[in-house]
């Protein structure tokens, strides 16, 4: 097989593994999500199936609110791209969250879900005049501006509409987030943000242009960071700039430190939100005192990842001389993280067997690609027809799903303390060719 890297064999004890995942537990030999049996879910809705826990989402959001409570002005802007289902957004909007968006599509999702426009921050490197017009008309809270040319474009569009655009400049602090290169965004050779060296010049330009309200400074250094130090380094770089700006008479209202705090997928040990907050709070309190600066954060994965699982059924067991393949009804079309980032995600049985021997399996989909794997070298006791749960799939799961190989996308279910409801229907065959003609 091409590209086959050697993975260590992964053995997880399902019960102790889920002990770390709030609102996921085993009861009488069956996995439960937010007090709903995964056996019931797979029987009622079929597989593959994305399942979310409302209470896990709320708890993960609340951890940010509580941990940063010592600051008087904090806005937690959930990163919509990690999971943009309307029910997820509505859950967080009701809890008071703001939102970090990267497209007009996400803007309308947030509004549709009942989110407040004034609590939206709009990031992204390729905003067009149309995008900016739409966002200004909606009355979003802040544009996170990623290029000098974008400062000019927003000023032009706002002038034409006779509006004032609230902006923050996204500065690339040039710190190494020590994460996967595809999800690292804070190094100077990344496409994101305005370079650290050009920051002051960019602020001076913004200050000189009409119809701009220069309210903030922003950075986002990457995703799935398990270590706190890169955040502290980025904050220090931001503080240097904020101090310089203040001396130049440019006084900002908020600092946005982006998202990126990681989660445990298998055996990572990411810092908790409380540890993250404790490391940053002394400096943030100082900024609040000196400049009246508020804080924005843009967590995505850290709120949604472990609030979701993907349920999938074992269709075929195919032992071969070299590898044993368990072919399941999910694939890279439904969950691309393993294929795209080489992510290792936990795969646990919905109903562990007592009477079946453990074997080392490659858990793969039925898509015609050798990159179509969900987990390699997993110690599992499997039978055809078993349901497996892939945990950590509440973030960058369904949102990255495609119809590759003409596979209808799965349904999404929201569980809430023993109740369950469809929050997105399974796609039908007709959905596959909607909009096409012969
Ligand atoms: C992706 C992204 C986030 C969220 O990242 P997570 O790792 O999911 O927390 C936040 N802000 C910006 C600008 C992003 O691009």
Tell me about this structure:
By secondary structure, the protein is an alpha/beta fold. It has two domains: 168 residues, Beta Barrel (Lyase, Ornithine Decarboxylase, Chain A, domain 1), CATH 2.40.37.10; 174 residues, Alanine racemase (TIM Barrel), CATH 3.20.20.10. Helix content is 30%, strand content 24%. The strands form three sheets. Strands 4, 14, 15, 16, 17, 18, 19, 20 and 21 form a nine-stranded mixed β-sheet that branches. It has an eight-stranded parallel β-barrel with strand order 5-6-7-8-9-11-12-13, surrounded by five helices. A three-stranded antiparallel β-sheet has the order 1-2-3. The chain is globular, with a radius of gyration of 23 Å. Bound molecules: pyridoxal-5'-phosphate.
Question: Would you kindly provide a brief summary of this structure?
Answer:
This protein is α/β, with parallel strands linked by helices and 438 residues long.
What's the structural domain tally? 2
How helix-rich are the residues, as a percent range? 25-40%
Q: What's the CATH class of the largest domain, please?
A: Alpha Beta
- DSSP helical segment count: 13
For the secondary structure, the number of strands is: 21
Biggest pleated sheet: 9 strands, mixed
């Amino acid at each position: 097989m091409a590209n086959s890297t050697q993975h260590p064999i992964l053995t997880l004890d399902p019960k102790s593994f889920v002990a770390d995942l709030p609102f996921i537990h085993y009861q009488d030999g069956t996995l439960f999500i937010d007090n709903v049996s995964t056996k019931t879910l797979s029987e009622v809705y079929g597989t593959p199936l994305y399942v979310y826990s409302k209470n896990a989402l709320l708890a993960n959001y609340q951890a940010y609110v509580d941990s940063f409570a010592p600051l008087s002005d904090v806005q937690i802007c959930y990163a919509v791209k990690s999971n943009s289902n309307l029910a997820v957004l509505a859950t967080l909007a009701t809890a008071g969250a703001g939102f970090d968006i990267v497209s007009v599509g996400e803007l309308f999702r947030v509004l549709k879900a009942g989110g407040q426009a004034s609590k939206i921050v709009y990031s992204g490197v390729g905003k067009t005049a149309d995008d900016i017009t739409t966002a200004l008309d909606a009355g979003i809270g802040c544009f996170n501006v990623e290029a000098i040319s974008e400062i000019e474009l927003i000023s032009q569009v706002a002038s034409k509409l006779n509006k004032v655009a609230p902006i923050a400049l996204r500065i690339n602090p040039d710190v190494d987030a020590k994460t996967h290169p595809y999800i690292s965004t804070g190094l100077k050779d990344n496409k994101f943000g305005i370079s650290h060296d050009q920051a002051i010049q960019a602020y001076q330009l913004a200050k000189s242009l009409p119809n701009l309200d220069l309210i903030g400074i922003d950075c986002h250094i990457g995703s799935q960071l398990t270590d706190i130090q890169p955040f502290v380094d980025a904050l220090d770089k931001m503080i240097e700039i904020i101090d310089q700006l203040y001396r130049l008479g440019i006084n900002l209202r908020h600092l946005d430190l982006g998202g990126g705090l990681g989660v445990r997928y298998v055996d990572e040990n990411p810092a908790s939100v409380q540890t993250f907050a404790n490391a940053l709070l002394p400096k943030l309190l100082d900024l609040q005192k000196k400049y009246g600066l508020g804080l924005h954060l843009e967590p995505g994965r850290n709120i949604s990842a472990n609030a979701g699982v993907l349920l999938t059924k074992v269709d075929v067991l195919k032992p071969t001389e070299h590898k044993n393949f368990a072919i399941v009804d999910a694939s890279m079309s439904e969950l691309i993280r393993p294929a795209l980032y080489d992510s290792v995600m936990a795969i646990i049985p919905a109903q562990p067997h007592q009477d079946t021997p453990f074997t080392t399996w490659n858990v793969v989909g039925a898509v015609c690609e050798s990159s179509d794997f969900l987990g390699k070298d997993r110690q599992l006791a499997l039978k055809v027809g078993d349901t497996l749960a892939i945990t950590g799939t509440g973030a960058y799961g369904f949102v990255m799903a495609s119809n590759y190989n003409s596979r209808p996308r799965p349904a999404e279910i929201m569980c809430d303390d023993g109740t369950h409801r469809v929050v997105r229907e399974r796609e039908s065959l007709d959905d596959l060719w909607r909009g096409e003609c012969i």
